[in-house]
Structure formats: C-alpha cells, structure tokens
Amino acid sequence: MDPQQITGLVLAGGRASRFGGEDKGLQTFLGRPLAQIALERLTPQVGRCALSANRHLADYEAFGAPVWRDSLPDFPGPLAGMLSGLERIETEWLLTVPCDSPRFPPDLARRLCDAAARDRSTCAFACAPDQVTGDPRMHPVFCLLHRDLRASLGASLSAGEHRVMRWLQSQPHSIVAFDLPADDPQAFANTNTPDDLRRLEALSRHAAPPEHPLDA
C-alpha cells in the first residue's frame, strides 16, 4: 500500500471532560502542544495530514495543516471525527490518531497498512500489552480506515452508536499487535487527565524524548 494514498488525521475535537473541559490538544507535553507533537509524528508516515478540532480553530491552524470540524453537532466523540475525515479525504485511506498519546509508534502507518493489505480488510487498528496486566489491550482510535466505510459509519452514528470498538468490529478488520521487543511500552499511553499528562512527562524526561520528525 502506498503511504501517499493515506491521509493522516489527528483527533482533537472532543469535550476533554476529564481535563476540566480545557482543549486537550493545546495542553503542553515537554513544552509543546500535544496536537502539534502528534501532527509531527504522523506527517512522515502518510501522504498528507489534517487536524480534527471544534474549538480554538486558529490555534490549530497555526500548526500548518488543514483543520476539519465535525459535521455532527455537540461533540459526539471520536467516531464523529473519523466521519468528518472520511467525508473530506481525497486519498483511498484515512489514518486516525488521538492527540493525547505523544509517543505513538513512528511505524504505525506501515504496520497497519501491512495488516490491512494481508487480510484484505477495510480497517486496521492497534493493540498492545496492558502496562499492568500484560494482557492485550485494544487501541481502536489508532485506526486505518478505507474511504468506502463512510456510509457505514454515517449510518451507525445516525442510529446512535458512538462506541468506536463496536463499530469497527462490525467491519472486516485487522488487529495489529505492537508487542515487539523494540516497541516502546509507553507508545499508546494516553493523557486523559492532567495527572496522566504529568506522569508521562516525568517518565519521558528520564528516557529518550518523543521524536519530532519535522525538526530533524
């Protein structure tokens, strides 16, 4: 699969209720906005990139990528951002990542693409060992979606389904394990709360910092 046929989308359009309603994508991690870090990690992996946001649009536009608002009202969640992406892309595939996991894999796109091509699936998403139990934990928002899924996703949202995993499991899908020895155990650590953000910052200060591909 040609990476140029993938549009990357950083999802930053939620309510961030566990962040006190503050715009999570604009919170800083090691001194830089989370959404900007995500955009810079994703950009080298795909043909083009955009941001999904519903507030502070000028701040997101300053990161240098198109900003797409949800086509549905009232912050209905990640699936709404995915739908907005599928409605706008000109490429065959959409790859979504959340704005709040600043250490996601630099080879995310390649591994999801390889699985989708091998399985002839229309979507592929990540799975990694839980940091406490070691059991496989799904990370469905790290997801590669074929553009033909737009109608199915729109119908699902119209029917009131807002659970990402439930919808993905209803499609021909691939689950991709990120459990190799060289994989970062914090790759999918997300920062749902300010405490999560500070904890991951503390861990990252004592390890190699997240890559900023566009700064290289």
Automatic annotation (TrEMBL):
<dbReference type="InterPro" id="IPR013482">
    <property type="entry name" value="Molybde_CF_guanTrfase"/>
</dbReference>
<dbReference type="InterPro" id="IPR029044">
    <property type="entry name" value="Nucleotide-diphossugar_trans"/>
</dbReference>
<dbReference type="GO" id="GO:0046872">
    <property type="term" value="F:metal ion binding"/>
</dbReference>
<feature type="domain" description="MobA-like NTP transferase">
    <location>
        <begin position="8"/>
        <end position="171"/>
    </location>
</feature>
<keyword id="KW-0342">GTP-binding</keyword>
<feature type="binding site">
    <location>
        <position position="100"/>
    </location>
    <ligand>
        <name>Mg(2+)</name>
    </ligand>
</feature>
<dbReference type="InterPro" id="IPR025877">
    <property type="entry name" value="MobA-like_NTP_Trfase"/>
</dbReference>
<comment type="similarity">
    <text>Belongs to the MobA family.</text>
</comment>
<feature type="binding site">
    <location>
        <position position="100"/>
    </location>
    <ligand>
        <name>GTP</name>
    </ligand>
</feature>
<keyword id="KW-0501">Molybdenum cofactor biosynthesis</keyword>
<keyword id="KW-0548">Nucleotidyltransferase</keyword>
<dbReference type="GO" id="GO:0005525">
    <property type="term" value="F:GTP binding"/>
</dbReference>
<keyword id="KW-0460">Magnesium</keyword>
<keyword id="KW-0963">Cytoplasm</keyword>
<dbReference type="Pfam" id="PF12804">
    <property type="entry name" value="NTP_transf_3"/>
</dbReference>
<dbReference type="GO" id="GO:0061603">
    <property type="term" value="F:molybdenum cofactor guanylyltransferase activity"/>
</dbReference>
<keyword id="KW-0479">Metal-binding</keyword>
<dbReference type="GO" id="GO:1902758">
    <property type="term" value="P:bis(molybdopterin guanine dinucleotide)molybdenum biosynthetic process"/>
</dbReference>
<feature type="binding site">
    <location>
        <position position="24"/>
    </location>
    <ligand>
        <name>GTP</name>
    </ligand>
</feature>
<feature type="binding site">
    <location>
        <position position="70"/>
    </location>
    <ligand>
        <name>GTP</name>
    </ligand>
</feature>
<protein>
    <recommendedName>
        <fullName>Molybdenum cofactor guanylyltransferase</fullName>
        <ecNumber>2.7.7.77</ecNumber>
    </recommendedName>
</protein>
<feature type="binding site">
    <location>
        <begin position="11"/>
        <end position="13"/>
    </location>
    <ligand>
        <name>GTP</name>
    </ligand>
</feature>
<dbReference type="GO" id="GO:0005737">
    <property type="term" value="C:cytoplasm"/>
</dbReference>
<comment type="subunit">
    <text>Monomer.</text>
</comment>
<keyword id="KW-0547">Nucleotide-binding</keyword>
<comment type="function">
    <text>Transfers a GMP moiety from GTP to Mo-molybdopterin (Mo-MPT) cofactor (Moco or molybdenum cofactor) to form Mo-molybdopterin guanine dinucleotide (Mo-MGD) cofactor.</text>
</comment>
<keyword id="KW-0808">Transferase</keyword>
